Amino acid sequence: MIEQMQFNPQLVEVANRISAVYFFGAGCSRPELQDKVQGALEQFFQQADCQVDHDLAAAAYATYDGRPAISCILGTGSNACRFDGKSVYSEVPSLAFILGDEGSGSYFGKKLLAAYFYKQLPTEIAEDLKKEYPHMTVDAIVEQVYQNSHANVFLASFMPFIHRWKSSDLVQAWLRSGFQHFLDNQVLCYEGVKDLPIHFVGSVAKYFQEELEQVLNENDLKLGRIMKKPAHALATFVLDQHSD
């Protein structure tokens, strides 16, 4: 992290003038991981008070409208929490892209690649995928997924292609099934959930809002806010909380 920040001339220029840093990141849910990130930030921003929290907290803060709610992430990965304005609470853990991340970009990327190599895609979709990625082979995909530390990001990179074909029956079935699995595992576990708005951040929620809302309606759940990029709303919340 320090090396990456040192290669950013804009950050280097202002580093010693920054008085506070609020960092929200995937994987920053445990104190020992937060301490590692905080240490890097404090070494770079030497005059700043640095605070580190989980990206799920960022989703909760950004979507908060004054009412208790369930706030969800549907982007590269997926997760959910309950937020009442004070405490962020998770009923179940996130199991990441191998065991979990239902309804996320990495989840649907796996669906697409598996169907392609198992020759289960409709001909027109398979031909379009081969045209879009002419050098895609089983060996290349296996190497990207099993030997790449950012395999989830690679899998999620196929979401624009999936969006192109979202009107097909197969993709519609994937979307409905994936979003239902996400609700079953991450949302319906909260007590009183049907009385709470369900907020979302992330590109998958934004670009597949129609399908997501249909599945929510089928589960008698109330759609709240959907934000593709929550950074501005998050900054507003954080600054309001620390305005004193």
Molecular structure report:
The protein has 244 residues and is an alpha/beta fold. It contains 14 helices and seven strands. The strands form two sheets. A five-stranded mixed β-sheet has the order 5-4-3-6-7, with helices on both faces. Strands 1-2 form a two-stranded parallel sheet. A hairpin with a 4-residue loop joins strand 4 and strand 5. Helix 4 (55-63) crosses helix 14 (231-241). It starts with a helix and ends with a helix.
Overview features:
14 helices, 244 residues, alpha/beta, 5-stranded mixed sheet, single chain
Proportion of residues in extended strands: 15-25%
Can you give the helix content as a percent range?
40-55%
Report the span from N to C terminus.
Answer: 30 Å
Structural class: alpha/beta
Largest sheet: 5 strands, mixed
Spans of at least 5 consecutive residues whose pLDDT stays below 50 are none
The residue-averaged pLDDT reads 90
Radius of gyration: 20 Å
Major sheet strand order: 5-4-3-6-7
**Order of H and E elements:** HHEHEHEEEHHHHHHHEHHEH
Q: What's the overall geometry? A: globular
Strand runs, count = 7
- Helical stretch count? 14
